[in-house]
Structure formats: C-alpha cells, structure tokens
Amino acid sequence: MGSPTISPSRAKRTIILKYRSNYPMNERQYGMYKLLIVDDEEIVREGLRDIVAYLQVQHIGQILTAKDGADALSIINIENPQIILTDLNMPVLDGIEMIKQLQGKHEHKIIVVSGYDDFHLVKESFKLGVRDYLLKPAHSEELLEVLDKIVRELRQEEQQYQKGESEKMLTQMERVSRSMNWVLQSAEQDEHALERIFAELGLSLPYPDTAAAILSPMHSASNAESLGADWDALLTRPDTNRLPMKLYSFYNRQNDLVVWINYDRLRDRSSAVKQVLEQFLGSTPELPVVIAVGMTVSAATGLALAYRSALEVLSYKLTAGPRSILLYDEILTREDRHIAPADLRILTEIIDMGRKDQVLPYIQKYFNDESLRRSTLDSIRSNYDAILQTIRWIPRQKQDFSAFEQSEQLRLYLISRILQTIEARQSLIRSYDMVEIAKKYVEEQLLGEINMAVIANYCNVSYAYFSKLFKESTGMNFQDYVTMQRMDYAKKALNGINVKICDVASALGYSNPKNFTRVFKSYCGMSPKEYQKLMK
After folding, report:
1. Exposed/middle/buried for residue 227 (C-beta within 10 Å: 0-12, 13-18, 19+)
2. Where are the transmembrane segments (predicted)?
3. How many CA atoms lie within 13 A of 463 on its CB side?
4. Which of 76, 243, 351, 446 is at a distance of 20 to 30 A from 403, taking alpha carbons?
5. What sections of 187-302 are H helices per DSSP?
C-alpha cells in the first residue's frame, strides 16, 4: 500500500520518501470482497448464491461456490475469499475439519449454516473463531443482516490497519527525508550514494532492474498536492498490488513526485511499468500531469543515472500534452530539425510587409505538435532563439525557454512577439509619416497661420500625442520648429535688395516689427538690421 500523503509545502523543505509494501491481512483492499459458499447440496449452495446476488450486498463482488470442505480448500488457496459461508455437516471433508485446516494459514470471516440437530457443531466452530451463524433454512433478511455486519467488520479492520501503518510511516519520515535530501544533492558527485541509502533504509530491490519515473504536475502547487494523494490511492488497489514490481516514491525539490520502479524487464511482457502509469492517468482524469520515464538500469547500480535520465526526459515536457507519458527510448529517436535561413528570411518579409494573417500559419508550420514530438529539445530551443533574433526582440524581455510547460504556450508567445514587432514597425512608419506631413504643412503655410491642432486632427491623433511624437522625432517642439523655418525664410528674404524689415515681419505674420526683431535676434544672435549690414 502507499504511505501517508505528505503535502508539497512540507516537501519543499525536506524530501519525503513514500513506499508501497506488501499488503498483509490476505491482501484485503478497500472495495469489493469475495464470498465463498460451501455446501454439499447443490440446490442449497446455488440458492444461497442467488439470494446473495439478488440482495446486492454492498461491497460483496465475486460469489464462489464449493461442494465440500476439500473443494473449498482448493478454491481458498487460489481465490483467497475474505468471507466464507459454510455448512458444517458435509461428506469428504466437513466444515469443522475445513475450519481447523484454515487455522494459522489464512484470515477469513467465517459464517456457519447449520440445522438444530447440529448445534453442538456450531458451538465447536465458535471455539475455532467463527464470526456468526445462521440456522437452516436461512432467510434472506437474516442473511443480509449477517453479511452487512461482516462487511462492516472488514472495513473497520482495514481502516485501523491503515491508520497504524500511517502512524508507523510518519515516525520513519524524518530519517528518510534527511537521507533522500542528502542523496539528491550529492548524487552527481557519488554515483552509488542512492544504492547505499536504499540499503541503509532497508528498502529492498528484489527485481533485477529499476527505472525512475517523474510525475510532474502542471500549473500549480495544489496539483502537486493532489498528485501525491492520487498516487497513494492507486497503490491501495488490488490490481496494482498484484503487479510484479516494487514502487518507492518521494517529492523532489521541484514538487514533482519521483517514483522508483523496481521490476524485471525481461519478464515484463505485459508492460507492467506502462500499465501502472496508465492506470494512474486513468484514475485521475482531471489532473494535468506529465510522466517522464528514464532509462532502465541495474537495480544494484546506476540509480543516480536512472534519476538523471528521467530529468532529461522531463525536459521534453513542453513537447507532450497534459496527461502524457514520455519514455527515454522514444526521446533517443528524435532528430535535429532546424529552421533554414531561407525560411527565416520569409519571416522577415512577413514582418516588413505587415502580413499579420501569415504569422499563425508560419509558427504552426515549424512549431506544430507533430514537429515538436519529432524534434530534439536543443533544436526546438535553437529555433526559438532564431525566431526572436530574427525579429530583434529585446533580450531582457525574452521569455526563459524552460518556463514553457506546453507547446501552445510557446506558440502563443512567439505569435504575440511577432505581432508586436509588426505593430511597432507600423507604428514607427506611421510616426515618420506624420512628422513628414507636419513639415510639409509648415513649408506650405509658412507665410500664413500655422495651427498644430489642424495637423493632429488631420493625422487622427490627439494634440498631446502629436506634440510628443514630433519632439521625439525632431529633437525640438513643434513651435520651435516653426520659428526655425520662419527665421531661415527671413534670413533669405533679408538678403534681397531694398527689402524692408517691416515687410518681412508682416509676411511672416508679425503685426509688430519689434516682436519679429526680438525673435530674430534670439535665433540668429543679431538684429535683422545688423544681419543686413553683414550680408552686404
């Protein structure tokens, strides 16, 4: 069964090891129990089976029958039923002798069925540990009452057992946690540290091969906490306990659940490893998790290598959808698939031409799920960097590649960056165009009234936005630019013969020549009259 679930919040400080041991008490599990009916009269045993089936007693599943004590012992050795309903007076091997032979070998809840004449046998059976009895003929109400009582006893015993196991496990946790924490920090320096820790903790590896599987939840810590509880629930299932393997698990520092799978790969023709992992996914349909299985190593050596290879496989999490199983052997078959320089030039053309409608098809072509599943992680990362370099995305704003958990996140990020680049380029072009429009307007209206609001309205932008844009583009505000252009015009005009200063001032819109003189002197460093003398 599984050990108590330890919350990931606690696991952040210590590494929590959890392991499944062989389930005692005749492999009783929460769920359905087997019932064996033993009677030498076929009509009686078949009648009892029909009654139990009709009553649909809760938690009783398979109903078996035997014709005498000897037949029952053979069935018990194979099926190991938890509940036995038996007659006492039978040929070949009677009920009392059968019960005696079960002493010390099996644990069962035994109910005897007997007539009044055999009540002395009932008394003897109680001395042998029989739980209850029914008088023939057994009525359905009495049978239902007795079976319900036995089922309640079974479930209470299981709950008490699990509680005891949980308490025992918790007392071992601190030692285990410290040991595994140390191992994960030192495994790279000491290849055999994990093997020694397994031996010191008394964790057996009875099968010749071991692999590490990392169950990595997506999105949140709450998923990690649910992960451990769901894994423990899987370990208590009878079909899991029957698999030929040992399972040990712990949380690593990333809140991923690491499972050591000890098995025999040569005899694993039914793919028990894949089976148990698929069972886990099937039992948790709502849990977003990716399972990475590393290389299989010798159970006695190479555990550190098994763990590191599982981490390597987990790095391909991006290429798998939620609820996927990634295998080490499959990763080895992947190829380097790089975007060709010619294809990167196509992206440049898409940006230059502002073809927003072509961005999604372009990214889908090189980062679709099928392509990602066939590519090495290095080539995917290289293509990611090549795209960002092509669009000249600002390095400090670049998303760390390892932060992507799903392929859709990667695609959406690249698409958004490309679209932002197109928008920025188009915005720059629009800004340049607006400044050129303003300059042309000033040139044409130099001798008339110039109003910046007219230009802003024409360009369909606000007055404040245009003012800021113009200054960022030219290095001066709009009014200073107008003044500069008018003073340049004035200098050319004052070079003429017999040109009056008042006429130039009037042409430029100055009603008072003194104002024109002040502005001209401020701009040229001399008065208009001094400038005329200088130019003669």
Report:
1. buried
2. none
3. 4
4. 351
5. 193-200, 221-235, 238-241, 272-283
The segment with the largest mean pLDDT, out of 132-136, 223-227, 398-402, 530-534, is: 530-534
Count each helix (H run) and each strand (E run) in the chain, helices first.
24, 12
Written as six digits, the tokens of 174 are 């601190």
Tell me which of 318 and 24 has the higher pLDDT: 318
Rounded to whole angstroms, how far apart are CA atoms 467 and 514? 29
Q: For the chain, which domains are there?
A: 8-22+174-331 (3.30.70), 31-138 (3.40.50.2300), 341-426 (no CATH), 480-535 (1.10.10.60)
What pLDDT is attached to residue 6? 31
| Amino acid type, 63 | I
Distance between CA atoms of residues 31 and 9, nearest Å = 31
How would you class 265 by CB atoms within 10 Å of its CB: exposed for 0-12, middle for 13-18, buried for 19 or more? middle
Of 292 and 168, the structure prediction assigns the larger pLDDT to: 292
* pTM for the whole structure: 0.51
Rounded Cα distance between 59 and 472, Å, is 79
* Cα gap 14→177, rounded to integer Å: 6
Q: What is the mean pLDDT of residues 94-108?
A: 83
**CA–CA separation, 417 and 411 (whole Å):** 10
